[in-house]
Amino acid sequence: MDVVELLTQFNLTRQEATIYIALHTEGDSTGYEVAKLTGISRSNAYTSLASLVDKGAAYVMEGSANRYTAVALEEFCTNNIRRMQELKQKLISVMPQARAQPTGYITVKGENHILDKMQTMIVEADERVYLSLSKKILEHLLPALRDGLLRGIKVVIITDIALDLPGATIYRADKEANQIRLIADSTDVLTGDISDGAESTCLYSRSKNLIDLFKDALRNEITLIELRKGGNKL
Amino acid sequence: MDVVELLTQFNLTRQEATIYIALHTEGDSTGYEVAKLTGISRSNAYTSLASLVDKGAAYVMEGSANRYTAVALEEFCTNNIRRMQELKQKLISVMPQARAQPTGYITVKGENHILDKMQTMIVEADERVYLSLSKKILEHLLPALRDGLLRGIKVVIITDIALDLPGATIYRADKEANQIRLIADSTDVLTGDISDGAESTCLYSRSKNLIDLFKDALRNEITLIELRKGGNKL
DNA sequence: CTAAAGTGTTCCTGTTTAGGAATACTATAC
DNA sequence: GTATAGTATTCCTAAACAGGAACACTTTAG
Prior knowledge:
homodimer, alpha+beta, Arc Repressor Mutant, subunit A, two-stranded antiparallel ribbon
């Protein structure tokens, strides 16, 4: 994803993004200058500049000829994210009551959603999380795990390398690079792998039967590690 | 903004939003049930369900007949916001170098952008902020001010009601309801009002001359408050 | 067993909206 | 005259939105 495309994720059209970048790199400019800098038709340049102002990405410096200046990138992104937070709060307050969560077997599809689900499980854990996965996947989860440890969550990890995560219990074992096993609070489990990127699937469940199976499997895996290495606990 | 419209801000189409709400309130359903619940044509229901799964708003529960279940609302919003945070970091790392900030006079237009600018000024202050505004506007800024106080920022506020903000210096004076005066770190100022909603404008500047003018005006306002009330400092 | 209901998919049509390209006009300054 | 500045308008294309028909298969009920 290039810069223009990243900016489109912040609700700018391609032309608006192009113009934003020009304002950012070249400094404050008139509509006429912007059109020349970017090669966009003048009429569309003026339309886009007005839109950038509406969307909080640019300000006007009023004069005989108006000049436009980019809102600082970090400020613009932060403002967008703050807006999303506010919309989230609004949504939560007006959304009708939810039906009870299903207790069946849920397919989580796509690497991004699987990582999201893992983060959510860690963030929402009250007591403990057990993970068995490779360093590669674990790296995505370190901030959430660190935060969890700060909250007093018990964190137990089986992974394939030495890991510096104070407060966590780490076991070392060879791991399939993309395999995932995660259990949180004895209430929910996630298992599968992310070898197929967007086509990857994992199973998520709150089913007690599956949770028990998992706890046993993880417990046994830990016992075997300890027996084989005389306790390779770090 | 109703629920459907709020959900469109999280990248769902109107039909997807309608279906998400149905899944949320009625619980897990097949495509056929969803079409009946929502009155959306069956073929569009299936298309939208597939899209909801792609967008992380729903999961599949696979079986002879697939059932779909809504991702919890808070989880879905949080995942979206996390994604925006990640995109922000990516953008910051690939964006070309910015030209220097302008030192002229910038028009900030629209209530939302004005509030954004105030929040940014407070968040980015290193030493102190002075504010003269009504309680109505101040309420929007309290979290940022509290955080600033925690960071050791000096906060001085002239406002129209008693205010419980430990660590801040509060002066009481009648204030025009929508008038804004804010100065941060002796480096930037914002003044204007938000009486016209989306059409409101404020002036933002880093011009030393205007900053000096402001400091004098605020200082004098404080002196007059103290003389008139024998120091109505709270 | 048959018929109906449920499930899933493909294909089609029509309308509306948004993004973008281009032209033309007015106004000001030199 | 040219260059700059701003606005209005038209046209085109793709996507979104909406609805529906048709087909095939599975499950359920009588």
